[in-house]
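User: My collaborator sent over this chain with a note saying "see what the structure looks like." That's all I know about it. Can you take a look?
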Amino acid sequence: MNEALISIRPRYVRRMLDGEKSVEIRNRTVNLTPESRLWIYSTLPKGCIEAVAEVGRVEVGTPHTIWHKYADSLCLSETAYKLYVNGSPNVSAIKIKRVSQLPSALSLSMLKLWIPGFHPPQFLKYMADSDPLFLGIVRLLCASTNFEYIEEIGLTKKCSGLAEAIR
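Assistant: Without extra context I'll predict from the sequence alone. Here is the result:
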């Protein structure tokens, strides 16, 4: 499973959580496999990681193809879409399989305190299991979230491993 952190405007995060938006686009190629975990950072004024999603698949195509296939799942106008893709030859459509709100958001100030050098990604930040950013997110979540939620999003082994490493 891949891990990635993505920055999304708060209004679109809300629409994802409400089930209205099921596709996120990027005007560059995205390399995420099905079942990758996508950590969702809501940009300022919220400034926090507030949700996590499971990727169903990623489709790369021309802006025209992606718009016609996913327009109803994007929650934006065709004009806004065209401004965003801005002449890119290809667009990536990230199909969200499942999304859930974190029980407690990880604020920008908390992230900067616990993860030295943290800056929200402009595009997308891929994270390995050993990435300090990913480990910081896991530590914060394991410390602030109930076991059922940790189990639901598939972090049980990671949290157990961190607890043993601390002992």
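A starting point for your reply to your collaborator: Residues 2 and 113 are 25 Å apart (CA to CA).
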